[in-house]
Each structure stands twice: as structure tokens, then as C-alpha cells.
């Protein structure tokens, strides 16, 4: 009996370990029209489908989920947590990301509430060693006004907040400055997409930075 138990221990498959839980929080507020929404969903799918990104996701057995957010009380988990254990897992998640319906028709921009909602989702993936919220948006908070408190709560909870600031083409970068100064955590970073046409490539590079070397 003892020999059988020992053999079972020696031949058992090792427990899967989730290195990173990465939640992608996507802006669907009133400034995002139907074409912009399509650019975001297709851009997310394209970034995840990149061979380097796929390899990094699988190597760390990353858990992925997607949240859409807009105004006060308008946040939804549109793609629940899924472990990326193989390239086909990533391909299926990318296909779902491209086709996911829009959760809200668009209203205000409640960044703080988006962060709080996103932070609450990590209770479903307690075994992941690193927890990252990857928020994208094209406007500063204009509803709810909880961004500073939500950021502080995220820091206290040990979360990392990174951001993609979506800027209109031109010299000014107020959205980048807002996300850099008021949203990301001290160990996070902000990247800038010059319009939504630039979103897919910016997200691809951002995912590689998050997944293949230390953030900071």
C-alpha cells in the first residue's frame, strides 16, 4: 500500500503555476464610436495573436481576462479568466476578443470605478503570483471621481497598474500625462497610442514589455 502511494506521488503531474494574472480593461465610453470600438477589439486580437506575445503568455501560463468600462456603474467582465496553457488557448481567446459585443453604448469616463471593478476580479485567480491591470483609455476621469483612491487601494493590494493612453494625433499629450501622473502604480508604466489606428502595435509592444522583462 505504501509503495503504491509513493508511486502515485512520483508519477503525478506537477501543479500548474500561474506566473501572472493580466486583466485588460478597455474604454467603451462615449468618445469611442463603433469604428473605434472595432479597432480596439481587432487590435487586442491582433496583439494576442502575435507569435512573440503568444509564446510569452504560454511560457508563464498567464491568466487573461477582459473588462469593458465606461461611466458610473458601467463595468463588465466580458471575457472571464482563462489560463494560457498552449498556443491554441491563446488563439481561441484572441478570436473571442475580436468578436466580443460591446457591453455599454457609451457615456462618461469613470476611471476610478473601472480600476476598483478590475481589482475585485483577481479574487478568482488567487494562485497567480503577479496581478496586473492593463487599462486603456482616451480621456480623463469625468464621473465618479475616485481615481486617486482607487489607485491607492490598488497599491495597498499589491496590484500593478499599467496604461495605454490613446491620444489624438498632434503635439499635445494630456491623456498620457494624466495616466502617468494619476493612474499607474509606482512599479507600472504608461505607453501612448497615437490614435486607435496605432492601438494594436502599441498593445503588442506593451504586452511584450509586461511579460518578458520586469516592469518599471
Structure in words:
With 216 residues, the chain is α/β, with parallel strands linked by helices. It has a single domain, classed as von Willebrand factor, type A domain (Rossmann fold, 3-Layer(aba) Sandwich), CATH 3.40.50.410. It has helices at residues 2-11, 34-49, 51-59, 87-99, 111-120, 147-156, 174-183, 199-212, and strands at residues 20-27, 63-69, 75-83, 130-137, 160-167, 190-194. The chain has a 6-stranded mixed β-sheet with strand order 3-2-1-4-5-6, with helices on both faces. A hairpin with a 5-residue loop joins strand 2 and strand 3. Helix 2 runs antiparallel to helix 4 (87-99) and helix 2 (34-49) runs parallel beside helix 8 (199-212). It is globular. The termini are far apart. Residues 1-15 have low confidence and may be disordered.
Q: At the third CATH level, what is the topology name?
A: Rossmann fold
Give the rounded overall mean pLDDT: 90
* Level-1 CATH class name: Alpha Beta
Q: In percent, how much strand structure appears in the residues?
A: 15-25%
Distance between the termini: 52 Å
Computed over alpha carbons, the radius of gyration is 18 Å
**CATH superfamily annotation:** von Willebrand factor, type A domain
What's the helix count? 8
Amino acid at each position: 500500500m505504501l509503495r503504491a502511494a509513493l508511486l502515485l506521488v512520483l508519477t503525478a503531474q506537477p501543479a500548474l503555476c500561474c506566473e501572472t494574472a493580466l486583466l485588460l480593461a478597455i474604454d467603451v465610453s462615449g468618445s469611442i464610436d463603433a469604428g473605434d470600438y472595432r479597432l480596439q477589439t481587432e487590435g487586442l486580437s491582433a496583439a494576442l495573436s502575435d507569435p512573440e506575445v503568444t509564446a510569452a503568455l504560454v511560457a508563464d501560463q498567464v491568466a487573461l481576462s477582459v473588462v469593458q468600462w465606461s461611466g458610473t456603474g458601467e463595468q463588465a467582465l466580458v471575457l472571464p479568466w482563462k489560463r494560457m496553457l498552449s498556443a491554441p488557448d491563446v488563439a481561441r481567446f484572441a478570436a473571442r476578443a475580436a468578436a466580443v459585443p460591446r457591453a455599454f453604448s457609451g457615456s462618461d469616463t469613470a476611471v476610478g470605478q473601472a480600476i476598483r471593478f478590475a481589482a475585485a476580479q483577481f479574487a478568482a485567480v488567487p494562485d497567480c503570483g503577479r496581478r496586473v491591470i492593463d487599462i486603456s483609455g482616451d480621456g480623463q476621469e469625468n464621473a465618479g471621481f475616485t481615481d486617486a483612491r482607487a489607485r491607492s487601494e490598488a497599491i495597498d493590494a499589491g496590484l500593478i497598474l499599467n496604461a495605454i493612453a490613446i491620444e489624438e494625433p498632434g503635439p499635445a499629450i494630456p491623456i498620457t500625462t494624466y495616466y502617468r501622473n494619476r493612474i499607474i502604480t509606482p512599479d507600472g508604466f504608461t505607453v501612448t497610442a497615437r490614435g486607435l489606428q496605432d492601438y494594436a502595435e502599441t498593445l503588442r509592444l506593451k504586452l511584450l514589455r509586461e511579460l518578458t522583462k520586469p516592469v518599471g
